[in-house]
Design a protein that fits this description.
By secondary structure, this protein is an alpha+beta fold. The protein has 15 helices and 16 strands. A hairpin with an 8-residue loop joins β12 and β13.
Amino acid sequence: MYLTALNLAMIKVQKSNQEVNPFGGLNFISKSIKESAVLDMIDNQLGSRGSRATYSYSDIFTALFMVFYAGGDRMEDIDENLKDKFNDVEDLLVPSPDTIGRGLIELATEKEIHVNSEVVHEYNDNPELNKLLLKIQKELKLIDTDNGYILDFDHQFIPTGKYDSKKSYKKKDGYFPGIASINDLPVYIENRNGNSNVKYLQHETILKIFKALEREGIKIDKFRADAGSYIEKVVKLAEEYANTFYIRASKSDYMREEIMSIDKWELVEINNINVEVASVDYSPFKGAKTYRLVIQRTINNDGKQGNLFTNDARTYRAIITNDKDMSEKEVIEFYNARGTSEKIFDVMNNDFGWSKLPFSFMNQNTVFLIVMAIGRTIYQWLLNGISKVFKSLSTKSRLKKFIFKFVIVATKWIKKGRGKKELIIYDKRPYEQLVRLV
């Protein structure tokens, strides 16, 4: 229905020449970041961009983060939608999208190439940026060196038709990065092309991750991973660097024989479903080393026989672990909790731009993946502080809610005596309590 002249006549419109910023919450974000040690850490770790560069890496990173904190999803939003809003944020430098892009590309490292059975595998690891990611997480006290953490590892396929992306088993072009996470935060990212099987040279990736954490003094208590990590070399690394590990076990004839020999199953309830559980000693890699295999089985909903693995009407799942203390139920529930860590992919894809990679080449997009993980880290730190004052937010709030509940607020800078400025907030929310978040 279109507005008629009569409808418009009923609406009183009063224009004003006042320059009011509807994204006034960005002032508090910018101030908090500047008062932390993060910007100095970025420039100290990555170095200078050269004497002719107008903007430092910290300027570029901050501007990129601000795009997403304001609800944008690509660098071009600065020029197209946000530049006047950013110019009204005190002390925020606003490089062009091209400058941001060039700055990120400068940080790219060479791809690593392996050929196996005529398959060309391409990997890209950016040690300096991954190191920076961990250092910032420690600086913001999101991770410390006193605790032993749960480390989750998984791969995520990111469909994208870039110049060098390759087709995966899912029959789509894209990349297949491996991501390690602690407390729902990515802590290490290695990119690989879409055609590479996740098992191929995964032990090298896992070793890089454990070594990077070890250098920063971060201790790992428990390691969880899916069946892609069911590899002898990975299991041995997990044993060496973590106290206990929990990995989904791939099915085999040997496993089937072990399962069929079990004569005692315990009925338990997991996620409101009755299941049977058991565990056996298991030597999966044709060696003397024995682990614990925890098995869960459930009756198929239709009750019909159809399981080619065991020829019965049940579904079987197994977890290999060196944990001798947890009950079977506890092991399964702990492993299933890694599903919450997989929400990281949803957050990074939809809130922090991973689903819209900006560059044509894998190594350049690796930079973007890690830099946006830093942006996600800073967001969590901001949220931890702001949610103490803004009760409509929690430490788990998604970015969209944060923007509506905090970032969007009308503000205006006014000049005071002796060159001082004062921020006027046209809202009753308790922004005045956010004197300092750090």
